[in-house]
Amino acid sequence: MPFSLRHLTIERTAFFVVFILLFAMASRVVTDTDMWWHMHTGKYMLEMGTPITVDTFSFTYAGTPYNNSSTLAQIIMYLVWSLAGNIGLTLYTSIFAVSGMYFLYKAGSGTIYMQAFLLIFGAATAATFWSARPQMFSFLFGAIFVYLLFDYKRNGRDRLIWMIPIMWIWGNAHTGYPIGYIIVGAFVVGEFINTIVDAGDSRMPMRGIGKLLLVTLLMTLVLPINVNGFGVYTAPLKTFGIEELRRFIQEWQSPDFNQRFTWGFVILLATTIGALSSSKRKFDWTEWFLLCGTMFLSLMAARNLSLFAVAAVPIATYHFANVLQVHGWELPRKEFESPRRARINVVLLVLISIGALSNILVVADPDTIYEGQSAVLPIDAVEHLNSIELEGNMFNSYNWGGYLMFHAPQHLVYIDGRTDLYIEFLNDYFRVAIGGDEWRDEFDEWDISFAVIETGSGLAEELEEADDWRTEYQDELASIFVKDGE
């Protein structure tokens, strides 16, 4: 039956409203500092027609073998930038974010009225992870895995085979692909226990568990079809084992619950516990492993908060739907609306869409972009750097290495956000960056002739006081210091 205006019921209207609002929520000025080295890598690979196998962007690690684990995502990001600039990267983030939330909605249960609240809390939790980086592939694919597995468990629809090509793409796009194995592992162990002890309202059959194990094996076998070959297996372990990440990088540290970005997680956790406590459904070991495992990972590192949202949203909606059903609080579904109410729904959708579009236009405004990016990136300092001729090696802030790599490629960087490349170098960098007597030894060792660093940092204070260094440029955020005679 063709769609008519009368099909636009209040429930369908609510669905569109929720996802329009989620899209607006995900649309923001791109300020992620790591985004730039990812795009520069994608640009290099497209121009050279070859994958990255050794470092070519720094002078400190030039020629060092480097397993670049985000080839596909980096190429896509650079192409998006080439076509649409900053607004393109904003849309890249929003599309991945909303697509992931859609699969969480499909994995859940109940009407959009009830799911809307949990989707919003889930988005508030996952938003800490949403940025124009390859990690958006991990958010989307994690949500798809949860959807496919719950759909098989609860509805018997077997589309597990799709997990194999998804895992292949995932392994070529982001080192976060082990998230898929974590999700699958929770289902394999949980469903096996459910079968043994007769737990859970719905269960995979034993042959289903066997098929899931076979799919997992096939996923593992296709992963090395990758520019890194068998190195794809060890890349995540190498990243996760970097102690300096947890010491120096906030997103790898345990979440600080004094920060507002964690409040969505707290609300989602409390809501999920309430749903499980109120539901009449049988205890389910798969749900228990998913929630406890992702909560543990979230408490270990703030970047994993989104992983908890991927697990919690469909579980919480499943149990809240049961609570509403048991108490007879479900709203009846309607296939048609009266012409008058349908017209009201159209007006509502138009108004919400205009509001969301206005938000996107504000985000896309050059002044808004400059204001947002200049608060964290040395835009004016790099513009000045490109207007003068400086020779020799550059010392730069860790956070700005990628930006300098992309916007001032004539200068090789000292360090950038590729933490897995600089594992043994990070302590040297941070020891120099905080200031102290050791900076001279490091500068002499690497023949540093100029520095692009944060204004007011410990090193900046040292250079301001040094007789043989001068301030070439300075603003509230960034400073350029040049060694006398350069």
What does this structure look like?
Helix 7 (178-197) packs antiparallel against helix 12 and helix 12 (285-300) packs antiparallel against helix 13 (305-326). By secondary structure, this protein is mainly alpha-helical. It has helices at residues 10-26, 35-48, 71-107, 112-126, 135-155, 163-173, 178-197, 206-222, 231-240, 243-248, 263-278, 285-300, 305-326, 339-364, 366-374, 379-387, 401-407, 426-433, 439-446, 458-465, and strands spanning 393-396, 448-454, 469-474, 478-483. A four-stranded mixed β-sheet has the order 1-2-4-3. It folds into two domains: 26-30 and 67-326, no CATH class; 377-483, no CATH class. The N and C termini lie far apart (75 Å). 61% of the residues lie in helices and 5% in strands. It has 20 helices and four strands.
